[in-house]
């Protein structure tokens, strides 16, 4: 059966791929046939709109079938435990193949539907009314095209058709990806390493941006002297390049980490950094674009413009941050107040979805960055709102955003592959490309190593050198870099950046992504993997997102009170004592944490359930997995406290909770998660620890 | 707590509604301020694009907040068991309110971004390149506007901004609604009443279309003689009106039926008819538009043109039908062959979603009707693919499409409310409106009563007169009528139709929808409702879609072998013996159903699981709900056969299965669903039946 099954599978794959090309060529062939037909009739406009709609459908269909093909192949890979190529890398390969076919195989006759005209308009309005022999037609502005593109537009309409509006990436595809990242970022290990993550994400990204920018400027100056550079390439362009290429996206690496159960701290550092540096890179790049000195000579250095850019960075970032957090808190409040909403899971899920989406729209409407707002909204939702949802809605929302993330991510990567051949204005300059690879490498090194050294001065739980090498290696570039560089490809400099960035993404995803397993063993980073475990995880990890962090390393257990970061400690106490009781039904009642003078207020704000829950250990950062004997259900982030340990803690204070959680949390994990996790060789039997308490 | 809770709730509602208006006015106010700013700078185009993007975000935000508000209010209604206003009716009311505000309260200065120009173009190309002092700008065709609209475009840009491209409804919002309808149409009662449903949907819709068309033509002729009709209104326009207004959408009525557990046959008839007549109305209306006699005088009667239209109707309908079914079957085959895909629910769900979406795109790309293809794809998916999915994916797909349906439906209805005030070219003609209401009423009557009479001649289980009155009453018009009439509002006739249709929708949704409970008791249609039941259903019906049909009426049980329709019987045998074994893992092995000569083929096609399952009763039409003692999980459509009845049937033939299913299916339902269903007074205790067998 197995051999026959895989034979059938292959046959089907071939069938599906045939489908892609047949349907595509049908779509391509339908154009000219339709044209003759429509020439005979009067209603030209209607026919044309219909035809263009058909073409759009066919184009989108290509992508959908590409995604389908990717899914089927991924499944084969997963089934065969083939770890050298991640789904995103695969999506790129399929995109490349279709791109080659579109470019070189399919020949479409010159399209007559593009007309160039010289109009007597002194501006370029958003809406244009054209009077064609008495009839009015409405046209909307799509954008400016450079003079050398004009001929391309006329020549190869078909290739232009499969090119999406770049804003689609920013407004439709990125938000679910970023939200999902934020929504998955609800980990004790994240908050424990918060200081280091913030340092890597903020300081590190800025360092990386400027190091890359300076190196590229050197490269550009050299090229100019060698006569290799055709047009202008300013320092701000170099900095912009540095900013957009600093957004790391180690989705491939993290998928393998998750599968191999690699060290949780390393996982948290990489994941946290990559999530937050996306936000930093977006705002940084828009601030660099906004750097606009006064006067005609717009590419000189000016302190005022720099300060303005810096102010803009702070303003946009903090604005987006507060907007995201605010919407998250409003959603938490709604779900907290409308407790009976839990009976109607559909309404609950819909509300959650709409509120999260409105964050994006609100931020964009206010002039902030929607993607950044959505990220912080996701983190807030995971931290507060999630706890107020009914278990079904928790599953539903997780699954919904998981699906959206999966589709959007693979779409972007397959589009990336396609673009390498269908984009019309590639400028591949070998010297620039070599310089860029070097700069990206140096920039990443300048981010990781010095910062790790500084951070290690303050950390008890050091970031070891093999972890540093791994982080260096995991500096993959992905969706964010692509979306930022395709957003504006009007000038020579931007086109060159775009082409180079594509190559950087391809190289890092295929080479670094593919070599993760080798790198892990080369760096002797231990991981706990067995066939049984993979099998278990695929069976039991239903609806649990990809960073469950339930592997237990020996080093974990040594963390004690002194070891936890002071930042985390302050945050934890504030969150546990005040925010959680106000926004969720868990945590101690406010009456016990606020000073006595605030008693009436505390009474008003505390939910009646908080008193009932008081005797329970309801802590949502501990991420336990409940695998009950008979039910194969996994509650990702719900701590169900039914054991004696939990019941004992009722009278204690928050800081004790924290200690206990830090010291013993993982042991409980081992206890409850025994079916999932194989204890490591250096770990003591979990029960001894537990009983000692 | 309850009083305090509802007070808080109300306060929050006020807060949220304030939000809507504040954010809206902020968005509205931002335009002029931004304009001054941009005038100072050079990069006008970029600024303009940004501004337009902001405005778009703000517009979309209005709708998102409207939906949020709707959800919160619906929840209040559901919580208070207030049945007079359904969520769709509510969404319309909120839409109306915002429409009034946009129209009369907010004043936006005349926008300078629209420029009218006389270009020397002899056609209206899809893409226009405009040369503005050396720079090229690309414009895309949005559509033709009539001469009298030109001033509106310039005057009230803001109102135009909140107007969506009508194609959005057809290409984005309708498909999930229609797919969900098809995907929920997996009911024994549907297949049992298949003949009647097809009659109502096909014959009935055509009757209704022509009756309404003729009546409206009479009305139009009268109006012309009275001088009330300003411009042309042809007979084809009248027929078109008849076609689009014949698509019923009794979502409100069905929601109440579901809640009140009204007779399942009535439910199946109404639901099945409304799902299928949408498809008929779409294809019918496009065929009427395509009716185009040769020569100049394009509004005379011509047999050839009629035949061409009729051929087109058949071609498009059967094409869309076969495309939808084909994609459904391909998906079923993939999920059947890639059995190990079940281990990766995310991939499975994504694949299902993509394949269903590609149906739509494929149909549109081939020139068929995507909505119709999606409907039949949904039915096929529910019937075959669904059975091959893992239980988690079954839940996931159901929940996903439930959510999409919910959002899209409420969006359309709130947009409908908005359009009443923001649409610029309403033509409300009192005489036409009165005529239309009359015609709609007569058309519905001419559909239901004669057909019911004819059907009753053949049916053993008669459609009683109170059922007929209820079906007559439940002829609500909704999303499909709206989407079809907003699609083209270029001519005078179409504008008048659109305005009239809006009123028809409002009236039927509010009056007929709101009066359903009264009508039910007036018609003495019994229903089983109790507080306990509602409570139970909200608790246990997780992931089960809205037509679970698990109420048991006394009349149901009397159905015997002779009573089932011959159409159903033929279909059931073919499906059970050949299709199910090929496409799913259930059903008898093909080796036992095909003649012996086909043995090798049968062996090749039969899944190994089929032999294992042979001794099980795995019938997926019986829609059982498993409510195990401790787990509050509901498997909507999975029959888990653990009882003795199932084991006994192993050696029987398919027709026995059918009899048993028809005769005893409901009893098993009662047995397993005792926690959900209160036995009716005239039903015998379920156990007696069961033991007797």
TrEMBL record, chains A, B:
It is found in: Cell membrane; Recycling endosome membrane. It holds the Pfam family Na_H_Exchanger. Residues 70-521 form the Cation/H+ exchanger transmembrane domain. It comes from the Eukaryota. PANTHER family: SODIUM/HYDROGEN EXCHANGER, SODIUM_HYDROGEN EXCHANGER 6. One of its GO terms (cellular component) is plasma membrane. Keywords: Antiport, Cell membrane, Endosome, Ion transport, Membrane, Signal, Sodium, Sodium transport, Transmembrane, Transmembrane helix, Transport. This is Sodium/hydrogen exchanger. GO terms for molecular function: potassium:proton antiporter activity; sodium:proton antiporter activity. It comes from Cyprinodon variegatus. The chain crosses the membrane at residues 60-77, 89-106, 168-185, 197-223, 312-338, 350-379, 400-421, 427-446, 498-517. The keyword Transmembrane helix applies. One of its GO terms (biological process) is sodium ion import across plasma membrane. Belongs to the monovalent cation:proton antiporter 1 (CPA1) transporter (TC 2.A.36) family. Residues 1-27 form the signal peptide. It is a multi-pass membrane protein.
């Amino acid at each position: 059966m197995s051999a026959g099954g895989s034979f059938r599978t292959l046959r089907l794959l071939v069938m599906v791929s045939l489908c892609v090309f047949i349907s595509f060529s049908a779509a391509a062939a339908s154009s000219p046939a339709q044209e003759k037909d429509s020439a005979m009739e009067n209603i030209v406009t209607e026919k044309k709109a219909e035809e263009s709609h058909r073409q759009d459908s066919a184009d989108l269909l290509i992508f959908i079938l590409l995604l389908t093909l990717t899914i089927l192949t991924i499944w084969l890979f997963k089934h065969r435990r083939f770890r050298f190529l991640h789904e995103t890398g695969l999506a790129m390969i399929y995109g490349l193949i279709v791109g080659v076919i579109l470019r070189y195989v399919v020949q479409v006759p010159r399209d007559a539907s593009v007309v160039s005209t010289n109009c007597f308009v002194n501006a370029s309005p958003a809406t244009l009314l054209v009077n064609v022999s008495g009839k009015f037609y409405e046209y909307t502005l799509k954008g400016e095209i450079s003079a050398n593109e004009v001929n391309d537009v006329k020549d190869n309409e078909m290739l232009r058709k499969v090119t999406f509006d770049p804003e689609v990436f920013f407004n439709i595809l990125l938000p679910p990806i970023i939200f999902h990242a934020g929504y998955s970022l609800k980990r004790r290990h994240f908050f424990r390493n918060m200081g280091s993550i913030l340092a890597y994400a903020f300081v590190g990204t800025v360092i990386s941006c400027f190091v890359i920018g300076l190196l590229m400027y050197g490269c550009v100056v050299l090229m100019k002297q060698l006569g290799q550079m055709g047009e202008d390439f300013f320092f701000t362009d170099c900095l912009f390049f540095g900013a957009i290429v600093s957004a790391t996206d180690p989705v491939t690496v993290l998928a393998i980490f998750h599968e191999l159960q690699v060290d949780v701290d390393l996982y948290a550092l990489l994941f946290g950094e990559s999530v937050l540096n996306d936000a930093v890179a977006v705002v940084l790049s828009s601030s660099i674009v906004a750097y606009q000195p006064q006067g005609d000579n717009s590419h000189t250095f000016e302190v005022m413009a720099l300060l303005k850019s810096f102010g803009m960075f702070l303003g946009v970032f903090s604005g987006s941050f507060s907007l995201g957090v605010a919407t998250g808190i409003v959603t938490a409040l709604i779900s907290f107040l409308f407790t009976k909403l839990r009976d109607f899971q559909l309404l609950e899920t819909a509300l959650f979805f709409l509120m999260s989406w409105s964050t994006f729209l609100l931020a964009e409407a206010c002039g902030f960055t929607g993607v950044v707002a959505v990220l912080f909204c996701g983190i807030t939702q995971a931290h507060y709102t999630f706890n107020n949802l009914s278990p079904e809605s928790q599953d539903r929302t997780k699954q919904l955003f998981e699906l959206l993330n999966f589709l959007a991510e693979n779409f972007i990567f397959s589009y990336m592959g396609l673009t390498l051949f269908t984009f019309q204005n590639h400028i591949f300059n070998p010297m620039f490309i070599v310089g860029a690879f070097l700069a990206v490498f140096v920039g990443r090194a300048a981010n990781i190593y010095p910062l790790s050294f500084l951070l290690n001065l303050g950390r008890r739980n050091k970031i070891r050198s093999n972890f540093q090498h791994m982080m260096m290696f995991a500096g993959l570039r992905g969706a964010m870099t692509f979306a930022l560089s395709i957003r504006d490809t009007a000038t020579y400099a931007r086109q060159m950046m775009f082409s180079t960035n594509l190559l950087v993404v391809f190289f890092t995803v295929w080479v670094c992504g593919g070599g993760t397993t080798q790198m892990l063993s080369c760096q002797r980073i231990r991981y706990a993997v067995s066939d049984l475990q993979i099998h278990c995880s695929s069976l039991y990890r239903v609806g649990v997102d990809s960073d469950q962090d339930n592997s237990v390393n020996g080093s974990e257990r040594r963390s004690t009170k002194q070891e936890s970061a002071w930042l985390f400690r302050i945050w934890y106490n504030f969150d546990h004592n005040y925010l959680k009781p106000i926004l969720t039904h868990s945590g101690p009642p406010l009456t016990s944490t606020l000073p006595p003078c605030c008693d009436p207020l505390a009474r008003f704000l505390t939910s009646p359930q908080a008193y009932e829950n008081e005797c329970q250990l309801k802590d949502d950062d501990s991420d336990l997995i409940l695998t009950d004997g008979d039910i194969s259900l996994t509650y990702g982030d719900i701590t169900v406290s039914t054991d004696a340990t939990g019941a004992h803690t009722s009278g204690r204070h928050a800081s004790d909770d924290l200690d206990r959680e830090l010291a013993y949390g993982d042991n409980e994990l081992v206890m409850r998660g025994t079916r999932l996790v194989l204890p490591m060789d250096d770990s003591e039997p979990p029960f001894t620890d537990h009983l000692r308490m």
